[in-house]
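User: hey, got a sec? need BTB domain-containing protein folded
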Amino acid sequence: MMSMSTPEVLPTRDPLYYISDGNIVLQVENTLFKVHRSMLVKDKSTFDSMFSLEAYTQNTEDALMSNNSEGESDENPIRLQDKAEEFSALMWSLYSLPAEIAFSMTAQANDLQLIHLARIAHKYQFRSTESWALGALTTYHSTATGSPSVQNLVQITELSILCDCKALLNAAVAKWKRLLGEGRAVAVAIGVAERLNLRSLLGLAYYSMMLKGREAWDSDPHLNSRQRIRLLSGHYNLIKLCEDLPSSPPRLTHDHSCVRKGKCKNAFAAFWRLILTTKDAGLVGQVLKLQSADLLAKVMLAESIIRAFAEGNISTLDLSESGDMHEKCLQIALHAAQDKVKEVQDNLVDLFSDVV
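Assistant: Yep! Here you go:
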């Protein structure tokens, strides 16, 4: 019995960038592009050296005898190991009119096209094109109000690392934090942050997943067993830190003009303990409504209460148990609380270890 072979799928010409007067044919995946060599060698790209090597080879006797050199016909194109959509984005950047380019800097820009462009421009060393595309993506994702698709956000984050673009990475991380705040794509964020070694994002992602609770960890198909162990470890560590938090105020240094010495330190310690343990139903009592392991929310709320107190929005009568503090020491206490918030944020990832 004869076996049926799969018919060969012939490459098709790109509808936009198979240009009639082009002088070089390239095949990318199953798409043929016919463009101008002069466009490809712009910006001292890799194509410049590629074609220079080709020209050198064609000076040999064998090449002179050939009637069909590579890249001169659809039957013998130059084959590139790229994605057709990425190469199309590169051609768009080389052939577009100024108005089309300007549109890519607006809120209606096609960020996926810019991602494709930046990635292939990086590969072929179109330096100015890469820099422009990264700048356009950074502007777009720093100013756009909506959230990108999770798939696009993953690509943007990867691209920022590939191209070492800190501004784009900061914009991407800000988008991830917004998603985490909404409880979305948390497991995906964990995976991306682990793979790219993004410590601050990884800590927040684990923290966000921990707050969802054990049932959510066990049912999420994107989490592996090691990550679930990390979540258990983080939950245990955070519970312990929250239990110790009321008796562990941020370190207070006195202002040089303060003559009260230990009194300010004791007053601040009492103030800190009062914030984190009071059962009053007012602003301070909000701490008790938080999850028992929600360390970050507790220190952030404590910082906001100390700021309100320092700015005179909470009277001394409301917090009379804390005693009096020197005005300048109170400002120092506020800075200490702010430093505490940053310390917790920076070190969250270390609480989620592989050992429970």
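Quick note: Residues 7-81 form one domain. Let me know if you need anything else on BTB domain-containing protein.
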